Amino acid sequence: MLSQVRGNLRPLRVYTRDRTPPGIWHAKAEAEWTRVQGHSDPTAWRAAVEAFSYGHVYEVARCRWRLAEALLGAGDREQATVAAQAAHQTAVRLGAEPLRGALEALARRGRIDLGAGVPAEQGLAGLTPREVEVLRLLVEGRSNRQIAEQLFISGKTASVHVTNILAKLGVHSRLEAAAIARRLGLDQSAQEGSAT
């Protein structure tokens, strides 16, 4: 489908110069395609940010959110922080609560600072904030590898977090830990932090 879009846009570029909607949405589609394929490309997301920079403020913020994710995945925490902070400021200014929540969830997962005024998450039952994030992912049924990818950590680190959670909660299985998390309402918090 994306190849069809690419083919249809080639003739339009003469007229649009990639600064009107067909070229702009094409840049975002290219970036989303890399994300869907499992290797979100920071270069593609930078192009999408640039494409919307003519004045579509909300889409710039959404693309910066995805750029921050891609940069974290590539190990560039400094640039990820810059992109996430800019997107968060815009989301707050626009009152875009789902986007703000998604950015704050990304900041927790990636351990990046969004700036003043973003409350730190409190621990629960002696768990560190990072362990609470891991526990939320356990509730979703994620494997250690999936937890590691989501939180931008190694599989071994995810395994250590899971072991510590089980010990702190006094349970013997991931299922028991997830049941406790559900009783404490951690499954609702995880659902609230996602944006479309």
Description of the molecule:
The protein has 196 residues and is mainly alpha-helical. The longest helix has 18 residues, at 77-94. It is 72% helix and 0% strand. The chain contains 11 helices and no strands. The two termini are 21 Å apart. The protein has helices at 2-16, 21-36, 42-52, 57-73, 77-94, 97-110, 129-139, 144-151, 155-169, 174-183, 186-192. The protein has 2 domains: 2-110; 129-192, Arc Repressor Mutant, subunit A.
Features:
mainly alpha; 196 residues; 11 helices; 0% strand; 2 domains; Arc Repressor Mutant, subunit A; disordered C terminus
Produce a short descriptive summary:
With 196 residues, the protein is mostly helical. It has helices spanning 2-16, 21-36, 42-52, 57-73, 77-94, 97-110, 129-139, 144-151, 155-169, 174-183, 186-192.
Write the layout of secondary structure elements.
Layout: H1 2-16, H2 21-36, H3 42-52, H4 57-73, H5 77-94, H6 97-110, H7 129-139, H8 144-151, H9 155-169, H10 174-183, H11 186-192
Helix pairs in contact: 1-2, 2-3, 3-4, 4-5, 4-6, 5-6, 7-9, 7-10, 7-11, 8-9, 9-10
